[in-house]
Amino acid sequence: MLFHPAQLGLAHLDKATLEADKKACKKIGPCGVGKKALYLNSFYIDRRYYLPYGSISRVFKRVAMSQGGFSGKGMFASMAYLVVEYDGGKQKQCNFKDEQDVDALLEVLAKEQPNIPRLSAAGEAEIARQKAEKAARRLPQLSKEAEQSVGQLKRASDYLARKPELAKELSAAERRKRAQLQSKPVYKYVALIISLFGVVSAAYGIQSIINHTGNYGIYFALFGFAAIFLFSSYNMMPTAHNNHNAIMKRADRAEAAMAEYIKAYPGGNFPVPDIYAHPVVLKQMTDALQEGRAVTLPEALEAVKNRLKEVNADVQVEQEEYDEIVQIKAMFLNHDYQ
Questions:
Q1: Which of 297, 255, 305, 294 has the alpha carbon at shortest distance from 272?
Q2: Residue 81 domain-assigned?
Q3: Treating both helix axes as pointing N-terminal to C-terminal, what angle do 144-161 and 164-182 enclose, rounded to 10 degrees?
Q4: Sign, Cα dihedral of 324, 329, 332, 337
Q5: pLDDT tens across 197-222, in order?
Q6: Which residue would you say has higher pLDDT here, 209 or 121?
Q7: How many CA atoms within 13 Å lie on the side-chain side of 249?
Q8: pTM higher than 0.85
Q9: Is the dihedral of CA 298, 304, 305, 307 positive or negative?
Q10: Under a CB-based contact definition with an 8 Å cutoff, are residues 50 and 37 in contact?
Q11: Is 108 helix (H, G, I), strand (E, B) or coil?
């Protein structure tokens, strides 16, 4: 190991244990989940620090929303962070490029360390309040037709749970497609200019070192600017996997894979079109039935569509609903709510 992670909290691991655990850790975004410790990034370096699990009291996601949060077209402007509480209240906040990576890390952590809370204290209280409100909204008794609809959704959800990767990829691909369709071509030119600034800064820094001009402060500044410029433009620059055709094909493949899986649904008649085959869609349809906003499956799907259309820059939603909408709204937008 070229660089050993730095100890962040009071607890530490011996060198041999740390080296083996870091090498075998599950790398997700800039962080990592090991058997002995959680590995966290600094601003520039991935997995720069480590925290043994015994020091950690909470790990949770924090989403910083830009002004407006939701746009009328259903896109979100947000930055996701992983927040780790340790040593009696200290916090370490790690920035992620992709919110899905934060969710994936928390999912892995739940399997490795199920006793570590994955919500903030305020989040736990809010979830309890939301559950109480949701329970109060439910009808004391459903009609026979509504009960049958709920049963159909339960069977469909169990079927999707057999291959959860299909729904995850469908959601991710549709979100990426939506972002691509909404992005303006000028952004790519801006990214190119920023990248050129980065290349020029790096080249000038190398030339300065070779010619022994300037001092270490100048070298540090030049290479720092180069890193900032290149990292800033990374997500916007077209690459083999980040270009219009590749993004569209990925969405097509995800839809085709789900459609093929739905064809084998026992008895046929999956309760939603395959383009909307996602556990969150089925859950929200179930909520609509249990709260009396729908009785039949078509009515429940229409209730979900109407709610998604309502969510815009002027609507505040709970964190749970936000997390759900993020996963499915692009699917409906890309297909014009058909």
A1: 297
A2: yes
A3: 90
A4: positive
A5: 666 666 766 776 677 666 656 655 65
A6: 121
A7: 7
A8: no
A9: positive
A10: yes
A11: helix
Whether 256 and 303 map to the same domain: the answer is yes
For residue 56, how many C-alpha atoms fall within 13 Å in the half-sphere facing its CB?
Answer: 26
SS3 content of the chain, % helix, strand, coil (to 5): 55, 15, 30
User: What is the C-alpha separation between 132 and 290, in angstroms, rounded?
Assistant: 14
Q: Does 228 lie in the same domain as 247?
A: no
Distances (CA, A) of 204 to 194, 217, 233: 15, 14, 19
Q: d(Cα 215, Cα 164) in Å, to the nearest integer?
A: 55
- Can you tell me the distance from the alpha carbon of 230 to that of 196, in angstroms, rounded to the nearest whole number? 8
Domain range enclosing 220: 185-234
In angstroms, what is the C-alpha Rg of the chain?
A: 24
pLDDT at 77 over 70: no
Residues 228 and 188: their CA atoms lie apart, in Å, by 17
Residues 178 and 191 occupy one common structural domain: no
How many independent structural domains does the chain possess?
Answer: 3
Q: How far is CA 296 from the centre of its chain?
A: 32
- Are the C-beta atoms of residues 153 and 282 closer than 8 Å to each other? yes
Residue at a domain's end among 234, 250, 267: 234
Using CB atoms within 10 Å of the CB of residue 60, give its burial: 0 to 12 exposed, 13 to 18 middle, 19+ buried.
buried
Cα separation, 15 vs 320, in Å, equals 41
114 assigned to some structural domain: yes
Q: Are residues 63 and 199 in the same domain?
A: no
pLDDT tens sequence across 82-104: 999 999 889 999 999 888 899 99
Q: How many CB atoms lie within 10 A of CB 38?
A: 29
Residue 268, SS3?
coil
Please report whether residue 132 resides in a domain.
no
Taking all residues of the chain, what is their mean pLDDT, rounded to a whole number?
A: 84
Bigger pLDDT: 243 or 288? 288
Inter-residue contact 100 to 176 (CB < 8 Å): no
